[in-house]
Amino acid sequence: MAVFGLVDSGMIAVDRLVTDILTRDNQLMSELAEHLLRAGGKRLRPALVLLAGQFGLHDSGGVLEGVAAGVELIHMATLIHDDIIDDAALRRGVASVKHQFGNTVAVLAGDYLFARAFQLFAAVPDQRVMAEAADVVGVMCAGEIRQHLDRGRIPSEAVYLQRIEAKTARFLESSCRLGAIAGGLGDEQAELLARFGHEIGMAFQIIDDLLDLSTGGKRLGKSVGEDIAHGVFTLPIIYARGMPGVQQEVDDYLAMEGGPPLEALRGLLERSGALKYGREMAGEYVQAGRQVLAELPPVAAREALEELASFVVGRDH
Description:
The chain is an all-alpha fold and 317 residues long. The chain is 71% helix and 1% strand. The chain has helices at residues 8-23, 27-39, 44-53, 63-86, 97-101, 103-122, 127-149, 157-182, 187-211, 226-229, 235-241, 247-254, 262-271, 274-293, 300-314; strands at 90-91, 94-95.
């Protein structure tokens, strides 16, 4: 991603570290590593770690790259486990680990990645790194459990926002906080960066949920309409169901055997203003993130984060 040019060398070091960790134990893990790395991805979370760390005033001696690699391993692990839960055949356009290797290997591979991530965090002298990483994994798991228990029910907007905060925003917040800690920043700057990560994380997930209901979702490397297929209802559906004259039509679509006709449902969500509402809410979160950045020193990393904010909100166009 062009906005991460500032941390290209760091990302190369992170990718090398991740590759080394994934290929060191046995042949099966080497095959899994090749499969995971082929699926690629934006490497958003480790890049946030590196960019946040660049606000620091000293060389981290490789600590920053180790923390960033740990964050990427956690992300990989959560994606593998998500695909098991959702019975997903694809991940970023490539066969999911569970589809390619089976559920048993996928569960163990996810657990392996978590273990290796925490080995990296344990190597950092500052104990706040381990505490923060453990906390965010707990928050994400609790969020996924709540979403799973709520399947088939349309939540309130407040519950939806709590869900995406736990699933996504908290991890981006932690990525920034971990980078700030590893980069030796003071508490005030670390919390500003964490707030930026939180706001961008909320926007990121809202846009992802919009893309799941649009043809643009194909760019995510997954089937369009996956959330609805799994009984997970996101902001556009919640908004449209709250509108007089639209609620019944939405309910009729959702009740159709075999799932709703997505093209017709998309048209209804567009006409009702539900998709516009989602885009506007994502834009508000991004604007809040930009306001937080304005309180940080005007260094090159801040400019890169400002570009990232524009990228996040622009993915729906």
